[in-house]
Amino acid sequence: MRKLILPILGLVCAAPFAHATEVGTEKQPIEITATGDTNYQGGIATAHGNVAIHAGDADIYSDSARYDPKTHEVLAEGHVRIYRATGLFVGDRAIYNTVTKKIQAVEIRTDKMPYLVAGTEVTSISEDSYLVSKGAFTTHDSSNPDFRLQSKRIRMYENDRVIFENTTFYVRNVPVFWWPYMYQSLDESFSYMVSPAYLSSWGPSILSRVTMPITDNMKTLIRLDYRSRRGIAFGLEPDIHFGPNKTSWARIRTYFLRDSNPDINRTSEIRVGVPKDRYRFSLQSRTIFADEIYGIANLTKLSDEFLLQDFYQSEFQVNPQPDNVVAVTKTNSNYTLTAITRFQANNFFQTTERLPEVILDVKRLPLFGGPIFYEGETGLVDLHRNFASGSGGHDYGTLRLDSFHQFTYPTTFFGWLSVVPRVGFRATYYDKTRDLGKTPIDPSNNPFIPDFLNIDPKVPVYYAGNKLRTVFNGGVESSFKMSRTWENVQSSAWGLDGVRHIIQPYSNFSWVSSSNSDPASILQFDRYQPSTQLRPLDFPQFTSVDSIDSWTVLRLGVRNRLQTRRDDATINWLGVDTYIEVNFDNPFDKTQYSNLFNRFNFSPVPWATFEILSQVPVFEKGFTEVNTNVSIQPIANLQFSFGHRYLNQAPFFDNSSLYVLGGYYRINDNWGIGVQEQYEGTSGVLEQQRYSIYRDLTSWVASVGAIIRDNGGVKEYGVLLTFTLKALPKFSFDLNFDPAGAEQTQ
Predict the structure, then answer these.
(1) Is the per-residue pLDDT at 703 higher than 80?
(2) Cα of 214 vs its chain's centroid, Å
């Protein structure tokens, strides 16, 4: 191999005709190596055969090359490859300037990851920008890409943007769309999506969105939707980061439409008075004021109670009645101080307003460094319970001052018995209470429904005077563990590498004495919420402050766990938690014994899990609930899930026998199928069916599917067609049922 090194000072001495001012701008030598001839004649360096040129941050490879120190240009010919920190350029002929770092080429392509560019001529505009004539732009790394943008001229600005002029979008060799001018940001925050959509209540629709950066710390999403049965809709959704280190953020969501058919109802519920002008405004933010002080805001204003259900179905399923809260919190290792304001921005939703509330929460701390621990919570709040307009409910309010203090003494006896006694005191002042003499209350004949829940909200509220309620609580928790290990238990089929059995009996005795003989006299704000599960026995975990009554309850249980080793870790192979409550005096369950609860978890192998959560009446009248979940992936290409919820004779909920079945099978690298079924056995209704077929198109992922919903006798149909591009430009062609698409899961 021949090597020719042309340092700048050497060039000045060997070539007296060269101007020192011209070559003196070179700060580094030019190194040329080749397997053939290399020479320097007439002030020009030439090389032939597997030429490699190293000039600064550029490495140039070609069949032959010549370098002119006067112009600082390298002319490379034959299988040209130019490597720079900004990417790779490939072509048959190129001129590279070692000073300006500009490239001039004919029929050259570049791998400016994650995109690829080719053109008849590439010229460097500056160090990090290029002009491509008759160019093609794609993210599919193939000699025959599935898609491309073919443009008369392309201007590329590294890590910033690409500007196309006279551009046609091709899928394979089929032209799909033409733009006279198009801007594509290379910023991660830039994307766009066009979604043909169909839903029975919408008709054929086009949903589109564009996400673009506004500043370094702000991006926005613009929505423009058309539904043939509903009309045109527009939305703007800025996302802002601000403050020190940009750790504070705010997300705004707006949506406006003039609904052509607001009375279209996709459910069996009756709707009245839905407006034509429909909108939403939402703000979510978190602001860091100092290291230990932050504020949050979660605000939503809606035009009507059905807007989310009609146009944001995924969000509606998770949060059908969005809250409106503003809070500032001061944190400390020993306490948390919070000021909260919660108000009714949407009068069609029932809201418990807090105008405002200030809470001091003292964490559990050792008292004077000793073995006794103290915890407490004190709050002052102006409360208002506002019912939905048109519901007939009568609003009420009061000022409440609540202070809770508790002491615990964790200790261990005999080295194995854990005992934690506790004693606490609570005082709550209300400036208004309910006059029970003027309030009709129907006695409950169901042992699980307290009498004070039978107050009709449509009955006018008659106030009595103020009241101070005092509550004393005491109790004790105890538990111990026993274990035994069998190292010789080995089974690859069952995923066993030794077995350890841990058994843990436990108990929790809770005694509460309230000076108030009837919770009905207390206006209910933080109130008893219907549930099928047992309520917490301890304070402050029991948060229904206004529903506190006297009780004496003993909870008894035992936990069994089988553990084994797997992947250098200890995992729970099987677990069973069984417990029951003995009700000496329980206002929320007037039976002597609660249901018997069982929580069963079984993970015999990494690809299979089983879970059964059940409660059944054993000694007393009660109700039955059994929730079963199974998840299996027997082979890498197959996933299967099954769930069943059985509920019978529960006091607050309808009987149900709900089956949910789902699965996904990846046929090969290119094809997959999915299915999901939801069947309600009690009513005999197949509530939902989803079927999907997935196709990997190398640079695209496509899916087609169908959905059928039975909303209480009202059928709804939809078809899904989705095209998702794997890399830049962030482009989606999606048929979906939600205008927000994927963002609703964030």
Answers:
(1) no
(2) 24
User: What is the rounded distance in angstroms from the CA atom of residue 533 to the CA atom of residue 115?
Assistant: 54
Per-residue tokens: 20: 């020192």
| Mean pLDDT, range 718-729, rounded to an integer | 62
Q: Of 674, 616, 624, 617, which Cα lies nearest the Cα of 645?
A: 624
E-assigned strands of 56-115?
A: 58-68, 73-84, 87-97, 103-110
What is the average pLDDT value for the chain, to the nearest integer?
A: 86
The pLDDT of 103-132, averaged and rounded, is: 68
d(CA 613, CA 628): 7
Do the Cβ atoms of 574 and 602 come closer than 8 Å?
Answer: yes
Residue with tokens 């601000």: 242
Helix (H, G, I), strand (E, B) or coil at 741: helix
Strands 396-408 and 30-34: unpaired
Question: Taking residues 642-662, what's their average pLDDT?
Answer: 95
For the cut 70, the answer to whether the pLDDT of residue 14 exceeds it is no
At 186 the pLDDT is: 67
Tokens representing 113 are 């990851």
Residue 268 in this model has a pLDDT that exceeds 80: no
Please, are residues 121 and 165 in contact by the beta-carbon 8 Å criterion? no
d(CA 327, CA 356): 9
Taking CA atoms, 236 is separated from 35, 36, 213, in Å, by 62, 63, 13
pTM exceeding 0.85: no
Question: Measuring CA to CA, which residue among 258, 252, 344, 267 is closest to residue 310?
Answer: 267
Cα–Cα dist 53/75, whole Å:
11
For residue 508, what pLDDT is reported?
Answer: 97
What does the alpha-carbon distance between residue 13 and residue 26 come to, in Å, rounded to a whole number?
15
Which among 23, 65, 31 is positioned nearest to 46, based on CA atoms? 65
Helix (H/G/I), strand (E/B), else coil: 369: helix
Residues present in the chain in total: 746
Residue with token string 């319970």: 385
The beta-carbon contacts of 185-190 under 8 Å, at least 24 apart in sequence, are: 185/160, 185/161, 185/212, 185/213, 186/157, 186/158, 186/159, 186/160, 186/161, 186/162, 186/728, 187/160, 187/161, 187/213, 188/730, 189/213, 189/219, 190/219, 190/729, 190/730
d(CA 131, CA 661): 55
Q: In 3D, which of 344, 377, 386, 339 has the Cα closest to residue 358?
A: 339
Residue 308 sits at φ, ψ, to 5 deg, of -65, -40
Cβ contacts of 490 within 8 Å, gap of 6 or more: 496, 497, 498
Tokens of 623: 């109700």
Beta strand ranges found along 188-274 (DSSP E) = 191-199, 203-215, 218-227, 231-242, 248-258
Q: Element (H or E) spanning 583, and its range? A: strand 569-585
* Contacts of range 577-580, beta carbons closer than 8 Å, 24 or more positions apart: 579/555, 580/555, 580/556, 580/618
How far apart, in whole angstroms, are the C-alpha atoms of residue 686 and residue 680?
6
Supply 23's token pair.
Answer: 């070559």
Report whether 510 contacts 482 (CB < 8 A): no
Tokens of 361: 């929460």
Answer whether 112's CB lies under 8 Å from 83's CB: no
